[in-house]
UniProtKB/TrEMBL annotation:
GO terms for molecular function: DNA binding; RNA polymerase binding. Coiled coil: none annotated. GO terms for biological process: DNA-templated transcription elongation; regulation of DNA-templated transcription elongation. Keywords: DNA-binding, Transcription, Transcription regulation. Signal peptide: none annotated. InterPro entries: GreA/GreB_C_sf (IPR036953), TF_GreA/GreB_CS (IPR018151), Tscrpt_elong_fac_GreA (IPR006359), Tscrpt_elong_fac_GreA/B (IPR028624), Tscrpt_elong_fac_GreA/B_C (IPR001437), Tscrpt_elong_fac_GreA/B_fam (IPR023459), Tscrpt_elong_fac_GreA/B_N (IPR022691), Tscrpt_elong_fac_GreA/B_N_sf (IPR036805). This is Transcription elongation factor GreA. Belongs to the GreA/GreB family. It comes from Candidatus Jacksonbacteria bacterium RIFCSPLOWO2_02_FULL_44_20. PROSITE patterns: GREAB_1. It comes from the Bacteria.
Length: 153
């Protein structure tokens, strides 16, 4: 299966919430465009051009989210504490002694700064299927790194 088409229930909920906000924002931007048109000459109307640009960004994101929600497979976390899968949270120790905590998510949910890594990324893919105590070897742009799985939640 294609990992970038997986999404957790939490990820799906966040996308649905964002979609609702964008659709509400779309109505406000349409009103801004209407108001700006009433100001006259559109060629030099900064408010109109800014609103049209915002409208384009909103429409693009709405289409992106709708497409993802239609094509993504919602993966229920297995709750398995023995093997890492999408939705698993894990703690591991690097070969440099650093303790890391990750949640394995679908590509659209990845947020490495907050510990959410895509199952499609080199590190996320390496952890899939691993058990507590397994040593995971990953080649990243900075070189090769090893992790020992400490805990799975």
């Amino acid at each position: 299966m294609d990992n970038n088409k997986f999404i957790t229930p939490t990820g799906k909920q966040k996308l649905e919430e964002e979609l609702t906000l964008l659709k509400n924002r779309r109505v406000l931007v349409a009103q801004k465009i209407k108001d700006a048109k009433e100001l006259g000459d559109l060629s030099e109307n900064a408010e109109y051009h800014a609103a049209k640009e915002e409208q384009g960004l909103i429409e693009s994101r709405i289409l992106e989210i709708e497409s993802l929600l239609k094509s993504a497979t919602v993966v229920q976390p297995t709750g398995s504490k023995t093997r890492i899968s999408i939705g698993s949270r894990l703690t591991a120790r690097s070969n440099q002694g650093e303790i890391i905590e990750y949640e394995i998510v679908g590509m659209s949910e990845a947020d490495p700064k907050h510990g959410k890594i895509s199952a499609h990324s080199p590190i996320g893919a390496a952890f899939l299927g691993a058990k507590k105590g397994d040593i995971i070897k990953v080649v990243i742009p900075a070189g090769k790194i090893e992790f020992t799985v400490q805990d799975i939640r």
